[in-house]
């Protein structure tokens, strides 16, 4: 069940105060006790993409990665990471994904504490 205060009037998820991290906000579907997602099988595109983020820099869309993610800290310099990244860039630059992003600009945000990876073939 989705808590009503979790969705804003414009149909966006609203972060809630963390139970364990003072001054931090978390997704309303995150179970902080076991670090699981209540809607994992149905999670939004942005959640499927994480720890990669689609960052808006001016009118250009840039693929970035969350530098605070423990997995990224451990794997950013591995061959497996590079291979996945190449596949992800190809996927995100496909016509279907470019059209999806143009139709859903709310997915894009100006994130901080990220590392820029590559500009995508899309401008908003």
Largest sheet: 3 strands, antiparallel
Number of strands: 7
- How are the strands of the biggest sheet laid out side by side? 5-6-7
Structural shape: globular
Count of distinct structural domains: 2
Question: Which band does the percent of strand residues land in?
Answer: 25-35%
Mean pLDDT: 85
Share of helix, binned: 25-40%
| Spans of at least 5 consecutive residues with low confidence | none
Structural class: alpha+beta
Quaternary: single chain
Cα-based radius of gyration, to the nearest Å = 16 Å
Short description:
The chain is of the alpha+beta class and 124 residues long. The protein is built from four helices and seven strands. The protein starts with 15 loop residues before the first strand and ends with a strand.
Write the topology of this structure.
Layout: E1 16-17, E2 25-26, E3 30-31, E4 36-37, H1 45-49, E5 52-57, E6 60-66, H2 70-75, H3 79-92, H4 95-103, E7 114-123
Antiparallel strand pairs: 1-2, 3-4, 5-6, 6-7
What does this protein look like?
The chain contains 4 helices and 7 strands, in the order ββββαββαααβ. By secondary structure, the protein is an alpha+beta fold. The mean pLDDT is 85.
Q: Can you tag this structure with a few keywords?
A:
124 residues; alpha+beta; 2 domains; three-stranded antiparallel β-sheet; globular
